[in-house]
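Following up on my earlier thread - several people asked me to post the actual chain instead of describing it. Fair enough. Here it is, all 410 residues.
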Amino acid sequence: MVAVPTKGPIVVIADDLTGAAELAGRAVACGITSQVVLLSRGCEVPVLHGASDVVCVDTDSRGLSPEDAMAQVRIAATFALELSPRFIFKKVDSVLRGPVLFEIRELMQVFGFPRCLLVPCNPTLGRTIVGDRYLINGKPINLTQFRYDPEYARLSDKVTELMECPPGLRLAVTSRMEWPIADVIIGEAQDIDDVLFWARKVGKEVLPAGGSDFFSACLVVQGGVSAQAVFGVDGCLQHAETKTVSRELFVCGSASETTVDFIAEQARRGVRVIGLPREALENDPMRDRVQQVSEKICNALENVPRVILSVGLPLVSDRVVGARLSSWLSMVTVDVLHRTRIKRVYAEGGATAVALARQGGWYQLKVVRELARGVVMCHTVGETGVEFVIKPGSYPWPAWVREAPIQHEK
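Reply from S.P.:
Thanks for posting it. Predicted structure:
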């Protein structure tokens, strides 16, 4: 077992950017300084510029093979050890997409944890686990929009069937009444009391892994934050409503029902929606075609303060095509930022957010505030420094974002 010092930052290792930002936002909402670090693909260990109480590392590994994902996690673990962390938390997708158990096993081996306690669900968002069944607002997950996820369709509501399990790894789902003999123990959770119960089970021999509710509970138990500060007010942000700005761009790459509904709603309100050319499905972005799309956006921003850049093409399930579309969106957005001044960029969907951050060279993000659960505002560093707002595709934008006036300020 690796000795984990008591002084250093809390280190979160997440498999995508929105997850890393979500947990950093949870910490900031509780008055804890946080930053997000993007891991490069390859063997580079990142260099941290400036200190904070929470460091969230994005391994960008959800869409990788188990072998490549484990390699990314090893790099993140090496980085974490250099920070002398107070404790380690493994952030996983709340509905268990990606090579979850392979990444957990890798961290267990690197740090010497004999067990992992996994609580992925978020009861505060209506996501619960009851008797090995995953429910979304009381409905089996395989009967919700997650059934149609283009990469990780949730075709069963049994938690143990939602993840590929590495050979030899013992897995068990349990209630508060039991503590089974297993390598990875998945805790049932129907409410915050359940989540807090599991957080109290975390010790030096147990790697905590899960979603934002479990991380928040660990802040209470391990970090000395009051439960009221973490869970007292839904979103904990009645004070955090932020004025919209005169020039803002939404980059919507998610195929979720939430994203589709948001784009349709904004179009009805008169927001200009600009899509990618059909050739983006088959061809990598070419400079002249990228500039044509970005020019449309710049022209639109001369007349309205808000523009949405969306894929605007038929739904695809091919990962290669999906990555190509993310590349198009990110290249167009960065070209727009070079052409005209934009105060704030909103990125919807993890793949979109990380592609944009990498294209913009934003490998370290200062987390400023949590605007709503899972919706986080960051500051980028560099010539195109902008307010960068990130959220998972399945989470809604807060009402003040959706309902903001769209006419130019006088």
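The longest helix spans residues 319-339. That should answer part of your original question.
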